Amino acid sequence: MPNDILDAGPSSETAGRKTLVEPAETQAAGRPPRRSGRRRRGAGPGGGAEVLGTGARGGGRGQSHGAVAQTPGDSGRSGQAADSSPGSPARSFSRSDARSEPVPQAVSPTDPATSGSRPRHADTPARGRQVGANGVANGHSHGQATGPHRDRRRSAWGSEGNRASGPLYAALDLGTNNCRLLIARPDDRGFRVVDAYSRIVRLGEGVGRTGLLSEEAMDRAVDALGNCQRKLVERGVTKARLIATEACRAAGNGDAFIERVKQETGMALEVVSRETEARLAVAGCVTLVDPEANGVILFDIGGGSSEIVWLDLRNRCGARGFALTRFVRSWASLPVGVVNLAERHGGVDVTYAVFEAMVDDVANHLKDFALGDDLTAAIGAGGVHMLGTSGTVTTLAGVHLGLKRYDRRRVDGAWLENGQVGDMIDRLREMSYEERIDNPCIGADRADLVLAGCAILEAIRRRWSCERLRVADRGLREGILTELMAADGVWSKGKGGRTGSRKRGKT
User: What is the mean pLDDT of residues 133-158?
Assistant: First the structure.
């Protein structure tokens, strides 16, 4: 089964073909569900674009940077955030790696424009779906299709930009398991996705055993990156940030691979630190935080590492959306993900003993989480929920919903009770490898990884038990796009927030 698809996946463990249907929240509002169907590869032009909303007015006042500068080799391992008073805004992520990552930064915590929520979006270009402040679809805003007509202005990628529609931004995430690209255009209080791409490459396959990226894995990744480069050129992308994560950080030949990519594709990948990866995960998912929550445990289960962040919101003072990135109290990046954990313990025939061994493996890394006891106390006081972004949690949600085909717009933003999460983990554990392959929300590409992801989630749940978990089918790329656009001030007052968008309903 080919896995070169139009961005079918939820996060760093993504696999399988997926379809789109209207989310349950929209159906409940009285609108008929959109018919689901498999989207063709390369869909986008003529297929409309997805609108990602945000409540941010002003978004950011950072200076405008040129085409993103990537510096490979930033393999710094970062620890937890410094302590701060409960619920108070804190610059929890240091800028100690700024010299090796000369990229646009997030909106300043002191910027009053951050009182709104930041852009959000789905993975695959939908037909003008407007996402509201609560993180789920709340209406339709059929956008302008991105056609072939371009003006004479040259973009940073050597192709002509579309002056009528505004500049295009791109975010690429080369992870341990997936290579994923998202291209979007700033829109009113958000951005509009015009193209996306995802391929499972398993770049980190065998790194835990050999310490090196294999030739086969590098070939797969270079091939996928070549496809991404063509999309960047064809679309006329103005600005991009192209990152690589744990596989390139951990591998002894990571730098050589980055150089090979540059020579063969012309793409300069930036190997980001774990701290940066955690920050981008927060920026990409924070709009799904419950407006009434006193705190959130946000986690991103990746292929080679897993990031955990505590947002302490007890003194949020009404802040929502992107503004919540100021409230990081503590964070950690664990050197365990679905690929390396499955390789160490086995992912095909997972017995009860094997599963518990994986849980114990992860639990050992959680012992050093800074302010872990304070987080436990905050959970006991109530109002804290989990927010998970990964193929593990989207799979659990899909199985819980009984989907016959993965439907992203029913999964993203879904809530699961703690007991339901446990039931779904048990259900997956009871499946044979063949049954996992046959499950439409798992498939052959993730059948040997999904239980490793469940073990990571189970270790987190045993350490900190919350009543509810919200599912996010979004992540690093959304965070990248948000930071790039915010740094350019595309939602600043006086710019109309429309950056090239056509005003609808007026003549």
Answer: 35
Lookup result for tokens 């050597």: 158
- Quick check: 5 pLDDT over 60? no
Query: For 238, phi and psi rounded to 5 degrees?
Result: -85, -40
Tens-place pLDDT, residues 388-400: 998 899 999 999 9
The Cβ of residue 301 has, within 10 Å, a number of other Cβ atoms equal to 30
Best CA proximity match to 391, nearest among 274, 464, 306, 468: 306
Parallel, antiparallel, or unpaired for β 295-301 and 384-389?
A: parallel
Contacts of 191 (CB under 8 A, 6+ apart): 51, 52, 119, 121, 169, 184, 185, 481, 485
C-alpha pair distances (Å), 53 with each of 56, 247, 322 = 9, 32, 12
Find residue 296's DSSP bridge partners.
Answer: 311, 385
Interior angle at CA 390, CA 464 and CA 471, nearest 5: 70
CA-wise closest residue to 388 among 4, 12, 2: 12
Q: How confident is the model at residue 387 (pLDDT cuts 50, 70, 90)?
A: very high
- Of 163, 117, 237, 128, nearest in space to 504 by CA: 128
List the end-to-end C-alpha distance of the chain, in Å, as a whole number: 48
pLDDT grade, residue 323 (50/70/90)?
A: confident
Q: Answer yes or no: are the C-beta atoms of 289 and 326 closer than 8 Å.
A: no
For residues 61 and 165, what is the distance between their CA atoms, to the nearest angstrom? Answer: 22
Residue 262 CA to residue 21 CA, distance in Å, equals 38
Model's pTM, two decimal places? 0.69
Indicate the helix (H) or strand (E) that contains 480: helix 476-487
306-312 and 328-334 beta bridge pairing: antiparallel
353-364 burial, b at 16+ Cβ within 10 Å, e below that, comes to: ebbebbbebbbe
492 pLDDT band, cuts 50/70/90, is: confident
Residue length of the chain: 507
Query: Please, what is the average pLDDT of the chain?
Result: 74
Question: Is the CB of residue 301 less than 8 Å from the CB of residue 14?
Answer: no
- Residue 175 corresponds to which tokens in the numbers above? 């992870």
Per-residue pLDDT at 188: 78
In angstroms, the CA 487 to CA 507 distance is 32
Residue 117 has what pLDDT? Answer: 33
Quick: pLDDT tens for 53-68: 443 333 333 333 333 3
Does the structure show a pLDDT above 70 at 160?
A: no
Pairing of strands 169-174, 178-187: antiparallel
- Rounded-to-integer distance, Cα 132 and Cα 140, Å: 10
Cα–Cα distance, 92 to 78 (Å, whole number): 12
Using DSSP, state whether 409 is helix, strand or coil: helix
